[in-house]
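User: My advisor asked me to double-check a structure prediction for Cardiolipin synthase (CMP-forming) before group meeting. I don't want to rely on an old file, so could you generate it fresh from this sequence?
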Amino acid sequence: LLSGGAAPPEPPRERSAAGPCAELYENPWTIPNILSMARMGLAPVLGYLIVEENFNVALGVFVLAGVTDLLDGFIARNWANQKSALGSALDPLADKILISVLYVSLTCANLIPVPLTSMIILRDAALIAAVFYVRYKTLSPPRTLSRYFNPCYATAQLKPTFISKMNTAVQLLLVAASLAAPVFNYVDSIYLHTLWCITAFTTVTSAYSYYHYGRKTVQVIKNK
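Assistant: Sure, here is a fresh prediction for Cardiolipin synthase (CMP-forming) from the sequence you gave:
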């Protein structure tokens, strides 16, 4: 500049580690996400209480877990700044972890049949594996472990099918009914056995809906 010549070109700026996904970096510490993680934390507590046959306390803790489920959905729907792509995966994941632990422990307590629990566990394991696969496919390079497990990088948003939402409701209804059965003395009720059959039907139907509408249940987030 002092000699009157053209200014030398500026050295190229180093690109951020996020690369093209920098705009997709979001805060994972929203209230709904914290409530979902709290629900995951309640899962082993419930499992222990059921195996120890402390059904009265277990029923109360289950109600508390249900309240966190209702609250995180309500907050995410009504406050835009509390809605996140991570939450769209974390909420159903918390439900699946809670349901899996509950069904295994209730089966150990002889309150839910083994075939039904096996069916539910297999379905949920397949869905969780699919979520990990979608995460890998939608994450832009470099696909490092730190970026893969970094919840701040939003790559896809999950949209559960209608029958899947109904199935979750039916599964939770069966859990509530099974927990209350030894408390109110209706373990051998025909209505409880009928609910087993309904739960098996909705579980199979839900699994097929994800298989049939697989691509429509995943919305890839693109950087604009």
